[in-house]
Amino acid sequence: MSTESIAWPSTPVESRSFVDRLHEWIATVDHKRLGILYMIYALVFLMIAGIEATVIRIQLIRPHNDFVSPQVFNRLFTMHGTTMIFFVIMPFLFGFANYLMPLMIGARDMAFPRLNAFSFWMTAFGGLLLYFSVVGANGLYGAGNAPDVGWFAYAPLTSRTFSIGHSTDFWTLALLVSGVGSIGTAVNIIATVLCLRCPGMTLAKMPLFAWLNLVMAGLVILCVSPLTAAQMMLVIDRYLGGHFFDTQAGGSAVIWMHFFWVFGHPEVYVLVLPAFAFASEIIPVFSRKPIFGYPVMVGATVAIGFISMSVWAHHMFTVGMSSAANNFFVISTMAIAVPTGIKIFNWLATMWGGKIEFKTPMLFCIAFLFQFLVAGLTGIMQGAAPFDWHLGNSYFVVAHFHYVIVGGILFCFFGAFYYWFPKMSGKMYSETLGKLHFWLFLIGFHLTFDFMHIPGLLGMPRRIYTYEPGRGWDTWNLIVTIGVFFQAAGILVFLGNLIWSYFRGKVAGNDPWDAWTLEWSTNSPPPVYNFASIPEVKSRRPLWDLKHPDDPDWEYE
Amino acid sequence: MRLRGSNKWRFLGSQILVFVWSASAAFADAAPPFSPTNIFAPASTPAKAIFGLSLFVLAVTGVIFLVVFSLLLYSVVKFRKRKSDDGREPPQVYGSNQVELAWTIIPILIVVALFMATARVIASVQKAARPDNAIEVVAIGHQFWWEYRYPALGVVTANELHVPVSNDDHPAPTFIKLLSADTDHSFWVPRLAGKTDLIPNHPNSMWIDPHEPGIYLGQCAQYCGTQHAKMLLRVYVQQRAEFDGWIQQQRQPATVSNAVSQGQRIFETTACINCHTVAGTVANGHFGPDLTHLMSRDTIAAGAAMNTPENLQQWITNPDAIKPGSLMPAMQLSDQDLNALTAYLETLR
Questions:
Q1: Domains in chain B, start-ordered, CATH in brackets?
Q2: What is the pTM of this model?
Q3: How far is B319 from chain A (nearest CA, A)?
Q4: ipTM of the complex
Q5: Which of A326, A349, A355 has the CB atom closest to B99's CB atom?
Q6: Please, what is the end-to-end C-alpha distance for chain A in angstroms?
Q7: CA B127 to CA B135: how far, in whole Å?
């Protein structure tokens, strides 16, 4: 097997009209194009939800501020949360999984290309539905507008008594529709990984990326289904006279919490496992060593998948569960720290004894390791239920989950963008702008989310549009808001880098990182059918074997 | 009933915890540093139990942080690619079962220790026995205010909870039953106890036994609608005699003199009585706070404004100026009627 035989011979591209090219993108079933569509879609929503976050933070810059009204503020945090989870991070991870999975396992496409396109458009439609509420939700004059029930939409605030008009319906339908897309993509990922691996690639020789996304897809099917069921019950309550969550007719507000968090906590691992997947690809390449403890990493991933299904009610320590139930969720929550800790130690051991190159993707992954460590430790604090009786629903928990989602997940996504940008575009990004993005975002992140823990410890609850002076919260909130502007600047540099590099970047070549997985063996960007001939592999690092015929991996694995 | 410090020597039997608990006692006796709602300035047994646990958890996680962060920093500095690099790949190491076993077993042991400490505190707070002399309060969350009922004492009030001091010599804990009239709320006065949610159709309970008199602040900690932010909590901890006096005063019906009957007539012939009660009169609404002893309270609008005549007038004519989105309607009254009505309210002592 040689690099040349795998790569597709480059053919000159005929110039076509804009309408033709647009049609090709909209009607595409190609996993790479769908992957890029997912990412562009996610970037657009990242901008929108980022602006929402900025407005929220401006409102909270000082006590008794009146930059926005309480009604607008409540819509902003609802839309910010819903958008970031369902229409930014989820499309990002599906986009990367779509783009990279067939390339990394030596396949020509996903298992079900049409389902793939269907899933993307369902997700896209869901996001549009959510934002259509801003103009379309007015059931009564002056009511309506965007949803304002919070991203976990606790009953009975979502009942027709307390949510007049159709804003909650748009929220419900958006999540229902995008949930269909998520499940479709999850089915597709599982089928692709199980059925389309190239010859020689046993399950034990897949890149960790494939393993992590396989477990992620399994979790999506298990956790999005209860969410979809709950949304349907909510629609039945609101329009067909049901009483599932109608507390005035014997329904239960707590059952909604269970349904939501049975989705909500595995969802955290749905979001974080792909981030782990990027770290597990990027850290070895820039440390110049194979991933440390591959079988243990796989085992830890599967363990996280199982344990994550049994921790949901740690979001509900304050709802008055029995002490037995509290104890169960304490032990299961703390137990998940063990496989997660194993992962952090294995990444550290991968770097140990290597030759670490501080390219932008690696910088983001190192920051991820640090931040995920902190996020895990604050997670343990909240796992200790009595401590959570204070921390739950305070700004501490807001800081904690932003540490996970921004400091952990988003940092890895940025790393992944820079790492695979040369493959996807064929162009090299600007390392200078990449590093500028990294440092701006790192400073902004720590200003915002480090200091956000403190008002939580001083008794500041989340989701308040304003606060009283004299509680010791003022200074911290000011610093938190200042950090937002650094983050915003970082994001602008990131977008500028992507656009500038796409048009002006240097040609990247097939394998700019001297990497080891199959996607680097084909052209950049890869041709429609990925590989001229389907590769055969003998180890987890097929390109290492190719580059070091005297010392191949398969002799050791 | 576990009171402060009574079980500190048995707590896990661990030397670390002994230290932690002594530190907590020293810490708690000081004035609240930084903030009146600081969770690290506990003033009641449940809050102190949580404080002890939180110091233990912070110590354990702090040590883990230092160890792992040092390893990360060391490997980033030590194993960076140097300028003098020879371009050869470093030794390819695939893993080590011994090392993996070590960093699996050690975290499991840490988790077990953390779990045992946590389970102990869960039991001490959730399974505390309720003594016969406990004060019984029913707290009902409303959009966006608090109703307090003392069923055994025949008192109904709003937004400002009064409880007696409880100490080792005279334990008088307060047990609070938590109900909701509409959406979810959460009762959180950080210096007294962790938060517990008020959920419709799902009664909860919690208890506090404040050791020192004073005013303890907090606020609703579960998003409950537009004015979640201004659903503030005030707990007045009083010496026993003072508390008994307050109860006596709250049990009296409203006293009305003839001089202000004009204001009373306005109150009783407008929409006020649809929502508000003044005991001993025809006003018996239940959607809003009981106003029988309105003037005995320091604040109005669930702590959003001080209880002054000017604020009262503003609250009656334009509640949105104080608390936009609250369910109090703006009353369309002439200046004369407004003055008479305010004068009447000011007699409700």
A1: 15-78+95-126 (no CATH), 135-237 (2.60.40.420), 258-345 (2.60.40.420)
A2: 0.93
A3: 14
A4: 0.92
A5: A349
A6: 20
A7: 17
